[in-house]
């Protein structure tokens, strides 16, 4: 495990945790918002929005990464301006966050939509007729009803965010010690015939994924009563 | 509270749910909106409750225009078709919801909320079920809890969407009398939607027969039975 103590390895672990800590809450919020709009309101272009949510599933992450480079890279006017103002996106942390957010976007929304469709709008309407504001209704009725789907979606999103390779590989520029995340560092070690380092890093990444799964199981066990009471409805 | 429905119409996109309809509902009456599915009765009820807004026309509460009033401000006790109890809350929390949702200035304190919820549980004759979850209740119990939850906000009117629709025949008859008793005790202007002409005739002071988004006849049960105004009414009530 000594290879994990190297500066590059430490930086990769820190970077991956940072990216995950930013991308997952963002996607949890985006996912809830998207699922809420799609299931609780009727509007034109709903089918189109659902297709848009699925887009990251159907597009290769490498292509998504290239699109970000095209949009924010130094060759575009926007990218040029951003670099000049000292906020580079490509080959820097914001680009990696963007790529990760894009690739993992569908997880939360996709888990929530069927649950929210099945539950319908009646409970929310009941809360409104009882005088609750929209925000209170969301907080006390909608959110508790979707919490398990939300947890599940968030954990899948976390696992995927930590493991994302394709899009990040393009956007990050693979700068050792700066923009190399764990999966990218694993690949770099492997290509340099540093098998021990590569496998220790891979084991660490797997350990993090297992940790999220254990967290989910622990939460489920702890709230088993509430879970069975709400599921049987 | 006196309710006046004045030339209310409602379109959903290209389909018309309600042609302009007018209906006075006297204060304290128990009114049935009776009709087959698709007759617009539920739409009319939801417009009264502020869950839908009419395409044209006005709603007046005690002669004051309430057409654009928000659902929260209407203070209408609404009982939903499948009751829509909050599944993650106990019966107590369900009934207390409306009181706890009030702005701080008008929110009763904890002891007062306890007292009111227990009083309502007495009113619906289910004093021992406060700590249960909705999934642990029978259909009839759920309906009564939904009624208590609606009454907790001290509503200005009671609106019920097929309140007996999800129940078996025996329970239905018992709860009919229960609703009548609660209506008489509270004196609230109440409107309920049903497709069961038996139920409407047995329970209501005033029956409004609807079809295809129009009102066919308004009258006391006996008058409607004696003098159906249209062929449709004659057919539907089966005289």
Automatic annotation (TrEMBL), chain B:
Keywords: ATP-binding, Nucleotide-binding, Sulfate transport, Translocase, Transport
Any GO MF annotation of the entry: ATP binding
Gene Ontology annotations of biological process type: quaternary ammonium group transport
Matching InterPro entries: AAA+_ATPase, ABC_SmlMolc_Importer, ABC_transporter-like_ATP-bd, ABC_transporter-like_CS, P-loop_NTPase, Sulph_transpt1
Short name of one Pfam family: ABC_tran
Record bears the keyword ATP-binding: yes
Entry annotated with the keyword Translocase: yes
Gene Ontology CC terms, in alphabetical order: ATP-binding cassette (ABC) transporter complex
Domain of life: Bacteria
Domain ABC transporter: 3-237
PANTHER family: SPERMIDINE/PUTRESCINE IMPORT ATP-BINDING PROTEIN POTA, SPERMIDINE_PUTRESCINE IMPORT ATP-BINDING PROTEIN POTA
NCBIfam families in the cross-refs: 3a0106s01 (TIGR00968)
The name this protein goes by in its record: Sulfate ABC transporter ATP-binding protein
Organism: Paracoccus hibiscisoli
Gene: cysA
